[in-house]
């Protein structure tokens, strides 16, 4: 008549509070999130272009927003998203050559991408403030 269904003693999938996310999984999710952040950041770029075309009053409004804490926070996040997405894209490009599929390599390169994106963001913002003489 068919195979009888038996009760399995295997555990169910671990809950999110128990499961430890590997860094490679977080890098994958951050890659998608950074891509969305870059797309959303294009709205700020479009606002900047429209303000340039609209005249001094519109540009001054934009400069006031960008100079605010929220504006600089958005720009800082956009800068990090740009560097993270770039470095993670390079990681995928290396994978396309067939290199780096070992678990240790995947984890190591994910940490390199995370650290590199933070480092490059801090370097760019430090250089920017140094050039402006803000420090």
Explain what you see:
- It is a single chain.
- With 135 residues, the protein is an all-alpha fold.
- It has helices at 23-54, 56-67, 69-96, 103-132.
- The protein has one domain (23-132): Fumarate reductase/succinate dehydrogenase, transmembrane subunit (3 helical TM bundles of succinate and fumarate reductases, Up-down Bundle).
Number of domains: 1
Number of helices: 4
CATH topological fold name:
3 helical TM bundles of succinate and fumarate reductases
Structural class, judged by helices and strands? mainly alpha
Count of distinct strands = 0
- CA gyration radius, whole angstroms: 22 Å
Mean pLDDT: 91
Portion of residues within helices: over 70%
Termini separation: 81 Å
Layout: helices, strands, pairs:
Layout: H1 23-54, H2 56-67, H3 69-96, H4 103-132
Helix pairs in contact: 1-2, 1-3, 3-4
Summary tags:
single chain, 4 helices, mainly alpha, elongated, 135 residues, 3 helical TM bundles of succinate and fumarate reductases
